[in-house]
Amino acid sequence: MATKGNSGDNRSRSSMSIVIVAGLCCFFYILGAWQRSGFGKGDSIAVEITRQTDCSILSNLNYETHRGGIDDSEGVGKEFKSCGDRYIDYTPCQDQMRAMTFPRENMNYRERHCPPEEGKLHCLIPAPKGYVTPFRWPQSRDYVPYANAPYKSLTVEKAVQNWIQYEGNVFRFPGGGTQFPHGADAYINELAAVIPMDNGMVRTALDTGCGVASWGAYLFKKNVIAMSFAPRDSHEAQVQFALERGVPAVIGVLGTIKLPYPSRAFDMAHCSRCLIPWGANDGMYMMEVDRVLRPGGYWVLSGPPINWRNNYVAWQRPKEELEEEQRKIEEVAKLLNWEKKYEKGEIAIWRKLTTSEYRRDQDPQLNMCESNNADDVWYQKMELCVTPYPETSDANEDAGGPWKPFPERLNALPFRISSDSVPDVSAETFQEDNKAWKKHVNAYKRTNKLMDTGRYRNIMDMNAGLGSFAAALDSPKLWVMNVMPTIAEKDTLGVIFERGLIGIYHDWCEAFSTYPRTYDLIHANGVFSLYKDKCNAEDILLEMDRILRPEGAVIFRDHMDVLVKVSKLVRGMRWNTKMVDHEDGPLVPEKVLFAVKRYWVAGEDKATTSE
Question: What structural domains and CATH numbers belong to the chain?
Fold first, then answer.
């Protein structure tokens, strides 16, 4: 593939400020795609974009009312201004200046600290000058346009570890890491010799302290999806790079509050020299990993202090310190009844036992957590206690139900439903939900013809329910961040993970833990009805604009009166919209609003249109 080109002239957008007419729509969209690919004439990637382009979504988003559409053109309300260049990479709840006012103990200052109401911005976060459309997967795994995240510090700091290299107008990611400088494939294959990744039994993974998420990027080869997290710290833009590559990641840290995931969520957890003090605080961080790890799941620790006897000189750390660190880790692992399955070189692998192998609640050494709800985690302090296994009716029964391989588990009845753990959700409800969302998604694709093309890699469902939207979309071309609103009537995030999908808890009255411009498509089902009396719709829409890429798409599903208000607001945010009836006809009160964010960058007063 081409990695260099004369991109400067091609990024000019001034000629694109045009009122689109139907006959010219496709021409200008292809031209825009060519320009924003970031490469010169004859570039193979631009040619491929041109060949694959289907412009129907853009013609459908003309301001005119089209056949089958609904006239929601009440005009534009207030017009939102740009926040200015200094906010290009603004992360409201992980703002660097605000972080420094909080205690450093236990990484508290790197946790979420959102601005008060009077400190919120009411403007649009601009893209950097020269911003281009990211490459499509799998090319995006290895290449990121420099203009999209123009930060070179990691190319110097991590040069010998092959994290990232700067080549002309792109960053290249060779697939290396601190513990796998010669590539992630060989490292993952070593793990797979112990952990059943090749047969679909291990599907969901948690990568703590992920760097640029090369481990998660290469796990896709084995159809394993990793939720990666790292703090916003001196390793500039590491999570931003991960998302630009098309790899799931959030800004996060193991600090003082619980991780925003349900209990028994992940099949595997991983730390590759992640600098987390696992033996500190009497093993509290290991206890938190234990909470989110499924019975029978695996924990991988590579790097210090594993094999400290042979490495303490290279690590430039006292051997006594490393010996004590490993002793504490082994002690906590034994307390949790994790069985060590492998240790070689700097890699150690433990497996959490199932109920049939070990009755945790009968161990007198353990301080069991007293909370009746191990999934109540939003802003909850981490506890020095061990999460009980789910109750079983038989001594030979595995807690949390037997593991099913992926993709079988995607549509199999989840254990949380079959065991009546989710109120008012039955097997019939689950099947009906699956059927309904397949129908909805098929209707979406009839309007937005780009949904199956690979144009949208990073997708978010803001109110994910049982995860059936993501299940209906399932494809190696994309992944979905399933968000469970903390005010949702039913907490079904555990169900989503049991289906082999990933997600996170979040309150949409606050900013999401990500960088700007990190999602290609956002789905908002009933979000504005849910938050109607909780917070300002304008704030939610501004946050959606912050995390959506230029020319990214949004699908709103809600009552018509709600969507008319939303449409009026987003037109003042430089979005184009089109409302359509429910697929079952105009008598259904629920409607669908399609939107596309226009392209504009820092220093531009006007957004160019892609209608």
Answer: 184-352 (3.40.50.150), 414-597 (3.40.50.150)
